[in-house]
Amino acid sequence: MFDETARVSQSRTPHESAQEQVRQLAQNINDLTDLLRSQQDILRHQGMNLPSGSLDSLRKMRARLDALNNQLTTTQSELRQLRGLAETTALINSTIDTSDVLYQVIDKVVELTGAERGYIVLKNEQSGEWEFRVARGLDREELVAEEFIISNTIIDRVASTGEPVLTHNALSDPRYQGQESIVGFALRSILAVPLTVREEVIGVVYCDNRIRAGLFKDHELNLLKAFANQAAVAIQNARLFEQVRARLAEITEIRDLMDNIFTSIASGLITVNRDNIITAYNSAAERIVGVRSTEALGRPLHAILPYLNGEFSNALVQAREAPVELDITLESPRWRYWKFKLNPLRDQTGESEGVALVLDDLTDEKQREAQLDAAMRYMPVQLENVRSLDLASMGGVEREITVVFADVRGFTSFSERLEPEALMQIINEYLSRASDAIELFEGVVDKYMGDAVTGLFNTQLNPQDDHALRGVRSAMSMVYDVAELHQRLPSDQQLFYGIGIHTGSSVLGSVGSPERREFTAIGDALDLAKLLQENAQRGEIMLSAETYARVQEQFECEAMEPRNSKGRTDFTVMYRLTGRKRPTNEVPRADG
Q1: Is the pTM of this model over 0.90?
Q2: Residues 6 or more apart from 270 whose CB is under 8 A from it?
Q3: 544 φ, ψ to 5°?
Q4: 354 in helix, strand or coil?
Q5: Radius of gyration, CA atoms only, the chain
Q6: 201 three-state secondary structure
Q7: How do residues 236-253 score in pLDDT, each as one tens digit?
């Protein structure tokens, strides 16, 4: 027990130890007083009495001990406040975030003064208006707007005079009698001090207690004034740092934005100063010119582009005064077609600082345009395919294709009854339906032969993995479109297509003279597709065995013997298309 008491005693501060000793002496005096009082009657029976004034002496000693204990308590409280002040001063100066500083300041104010609530009001640096920045209670919880029960009169006075205000009971203080906020909110103990930096009031620290009067004394006032001086510096430093940080972030954002823009520009961008020394050079310029930025920056422009001609040099001089556009074709070291836009760079006074060069390499575009011109000599096909096509393959390539051969049935006898102009109008209606159906599934219309049309799928102009499926769908579309056409044509003008489809190998390329060329397919694939078409009756679609094998999972077909094989021993079966297969997960309709 003694060791434990000694250990606890050693852990106490000197003031706490002195207070304990004073309390122990007071207890001893109380015990001695009780003992003397209990022995007083016994001594009187024996004709004796206690020494005169002994009990009074003990009472006086006890009173002195109580006073000493109160003084020690006050001293210890003040010492804790001073220590807290020192610790907080170091703490608030260790952070550079304004919000953190404000919260630490107000929490310590409430702790040091014993206030019920604490507020910090700061002057807005832009508007000059006073704003509540922090409001906290004893529990260190943020106060909501409804709890902002304060005396604006006192805050305004401190902010305008730069002098602190201490009132023990605001309700009875003659300085504030009649003030609505004090009377209405029944405010009592109030302490407010300015936050001053270089003789300028930047804010006010305000704390109060609505219940206890006389809570704050001169000691709390002096303590808070000392604390506020340090806190004001910390708050100002934090605000200045945030301004610098915000400005730095803004500059960094602008720089990153400019870097991103500079880097992401598809065109080459080069800037040169008055001496034609390269000062900026983006990644697109690296790609176009073929020289890395590390090798280009700081070097003369002619050292990077030595093969530019005198026309470019003249344009560079002119560009110091006005924008210039220039197209240059380079023959060496390799053929290139470059487009330059040169613009003057000027300072704030309008003086020339150099030239900005925007460079676009249009070589590929020019080559594509030449290829497109060549391709358009064959037929109007989708430009997307032509632009990605190596036209070297136009000379002739063997590949597997699907051929759709469609012919109008009964056209010969039909044409004998009409005038030529009406005949051409009607046949064009049917051929348009066939062409639209082929192009709908990205086929190439190979040729028109009178009342017949041929469509090719999976050529080098329209490569397709599912070419057989596309060919069959285009044939079905022809049949549907013709049926729709019949709804607005008289019965004597209603014709039908017979369609043959075959999938096989063919040679594809360009044929014709230098002035007029045609892209077509040559080989047995076209012959067998035509033979299947000849076997098809009005409105029928006939598939070869090769095509059927590719689409049998999607379409219903009926195997048939050829009506006319023309002596071909390999043509023993053909398949008449009867419809699309219903997916296994499709619910049958009520009408079947």
Answers
A1: no
A2: 278, 280, 281, 282, 285, 296, 301, 356, 357, 359
A3: -75, 165
A4: strand
A5: 51
A6: strand
A7: 777 788 777 878 877 777
